[in-house]
Amino acid sequence: MVTIKEIARLSGVSRGTVDRVLNNRGSVKPETAEKVMQVIKDVNYSPSRAGKTLAIKKKQLKFGFILFSSTSSNPFFLDVVRGIQARADFMKEYGVTVETRYATLDNPQLQVQLIDELINQGINGLAITPINHPIVAEKLKEIAKNGIPVVTSNSDIPNCGRIAYVGSDYYKSGETAAGLMNLICGQDTKVGIITGSHWILCHSERIAGFTDNINKNYPNIQIIDTAINNDDDAESFIVTRKMLTEHPEINALYLVAAGIQGACRAVDDLGLRGKIKIISYDTTEPTCKLVRENVIIATIAQQAFTQGAKPLDILLDYVGLNIKPEKEYFYTKIEIKIKENL
Amino acid sequence: MVTIKEIARLSGVSRGTVDRVLNNRGSVKPETAEKVMQVIKDVNYSPSRAGKTLAIKKKQLKFGFILFSSTSSNPFFLDVVRGIQARADFMKEYGVTVETRYATLDNPQLQVQLIDELINQGINGLAITPINHPIVAEKLKEIAKNGIPVVTSNSDIPNCGRIAYVGSDYYKSGETAAGLMNLICGQDTKVGIITGSHWILCHSERIAGFTDNINKNYPNIQIIDTAINNDDDAESFIVTRKMLTEHPEINALYLVAAGIQGACRAVDDLGLRGKIKIISYDTTEPTCKLVRENVIIATIAQQAFTQGAKPLDILLDYVGLNIKPEKEYFYTKIEIKIKENL
DNA sequence: TTGAAAGCGCTACCAG
DNA sequence: CTGGTAGCGCTTTCAA
Fold first, then answer.
1. Which nucleotides of C are covered by protein (CB under 7 A)?
2. Which residues of chain A approach chain B closer than 8 Å at the C-beta?
3. How far apart are CA B267 and CA B206, in angstroms?
4. Tell me: the pLDDT tens digits for A121-178?
5. CA–C1' gap, B48 and D2, in angstroms
6. Under an 8 A CB cutoff, do A341 and B339 touch?
7. Which fold has domain A4-45?
8. Domain segments of chain B: what residues?
9. What pTM, to 2 d.p., does this model score?
10. CA B14 from centroid of its chain's CA atoms
11. Residue B213's CB: how many other CB atoms inside 10 A?
12. Whole-number Å distance, CA A52 to C1' D12?
């Protein structure tokens, strides 16, 4: 392994100069830079992670993480928070601190405000589960332009200057749900879809993948109706009950969003447990319980922990070690969970 | 964060002494050690990973990894090797080298010989996919006693002095296959099992989990017959064909081991594609192809990459950073893969 | 524009 | 048994 010291020796300059060249800090005569660059190429130099890591501490880095309220009806984000916490703990040793802020799904102004707040606190990088709204997109563009790297998590805004996205490929996840439903259900499957909202991209993407795959490959499955529960359990109970009452032919449910317990309660309420094959998302504790009780037949998870942890890893690599993410999209695995492998 | 220097200052000794106390290197007067220990407790000292990591280089560590021939009929190990390679590359920077050796499934003497060879080369830790044979177990006990940590991967020998096992929970994986088969197949499922051998623990464990779960929970599934293919495709073709001919009532196959292509070829040969629901293991390229072609309906993966990478991580933590594994069993995820989430 | 040196936290080695 | 010192590779700061 070649070190900076070695490069310095070979090119007849000091380590400081090599460092300046390597990190484009300027203040180097072009010819000198040229010479050093040449040596770097020649010996195929690659910086040592260990050395850089040790030196990070002096920078006293601070990252911000904005996500959705952990007290919302969707406990999914609790697992994300565990991922954040794990990484924050780990990075503490390097003098890195992580500031977490909670937004709500319906308030882009709040997101902008939280971003400003974190910027004022002097963060060196931001991870965010953004609402795809123009004012949020603009704000992200702005801070990216100011040199603060942004990583989106769980939900994405393309072309907002962010360096990477960590989260599910929702379309593919919808396709997987369709494939799974085809395997599990029979020749004459009539499915009802319960979604959170048509405006939330991840929900509509899942439905698009689900629908497209059915239309393309599974003529045995027929989508009977779609209802909206606004991610709310009480509402979910009502709309699900209504749907099943109006369409007694439905024998499968595709639960796209939160409000899973409410929907399942409706099924139970109508005495349809076991009669209706239910596929849902995520492995929050309440959902796992329903799987163990044979109410939900399969649930599709999306590495929640990773969605909290990975963005921070990417940011640390970027600002601490000057390593750019090796790709733009870090798709989480689409994990099919049944009772036995929960 | 408290450093060794700080501990030294607080307890009025030198850093060297603190280091000796921290790492039980001896040569410290009991009273001095006592005093230092007290300070360490008081300030809740925890060593810095970064610092230790940087210092690893001086040790010029070398690890050995013994697994099964990558040219065997089971390409599963190719993915394991990718995991090894990735970690070996990464650790190169720390001056750590990894020596890989290939054994065969049926030759415990060879394993012992390879272990000796690596020991003679001066390895500081060993990862191994052991054959569960007394002479291998004895050899592992011996080197563990000599202070060389051993991590088993993919296959395990309990109580051989190894510090951890990385790999599948085969019993649970068999249970999952049963659960999956119940979901996918109908009321009257008659399954044929094709296994590699009754002597290979992971095969028999999978079958035990599968059978137990069926007996306990799924009376609709009936196991008709079990055949052995010795992990060989040609043999697999023959025994599968024979089984399906003798038992035309079979409508599902549980492929426990390698020889997947051979079994599928037999199904095709009899014109039964689509008629027989096939569940297999792993996501080697040939198997993925069969899933995409709707021959195999689902396959269960076991994080092959991790089985190569994680043992090396554990060894480096152990001998390089003096961090003991936080648990004994690192079970890989039981991943259900269908066409859409392959 | 460049060099020299200190320091990040830990380990290893030599001298007492 | 103990202290002091020189690294591991990189960054940063102060002089020149």
1. 1-14
2. 1, 48-51, 53-54, 56-57, 92-95, 172, 175-176, 178-180, 183-184, 186, 213, 297-298, 333-341
3. 22
4. 999 999 999 999 999 999 999 999 999 999 999 999 999 999 999 999 999 999 999 9
5. 24
6. no
7. 434 Repressor (Amino-terminal Domain) (1.10.260)
8. 4-45, 55-167+304-333, 170-301
9. 0.95
10. 43
11. 23
12. 13
